[in-house]
Write the structure tokens for this entry.
Amino acid sequence: MGKPGDMTDIDARYGLEPVFEPGAATAGRAPGGTEFHVVDCPYCGEPFETLIDLSGGSSAYVEDCQVCCQPIEFRVKVDHDGTLLGLDTVRGD
């Protein structure tokens, strides 16, 4: 167990599942092979945070901008061990 009052200590003490808090000091890493990243919309230019799934390897998919709702194509390059090698965002039209 961790130090008394530490989040892992509290989780273990009460039998709780660990909770990921966005913005926590975990270098953007979330459970299950995912990472949070801030991207800039190629339409409106506004930055927003999104969860990138690295568990399936390299992929391309479309997600709407959280600000202007335009379709953004995400091109994710993932290493064989699940490390993010590159992330490109382009207009999805």
About this structure: The first helix runs from residue 7 to 14. The longest strand covers residues 71-78.
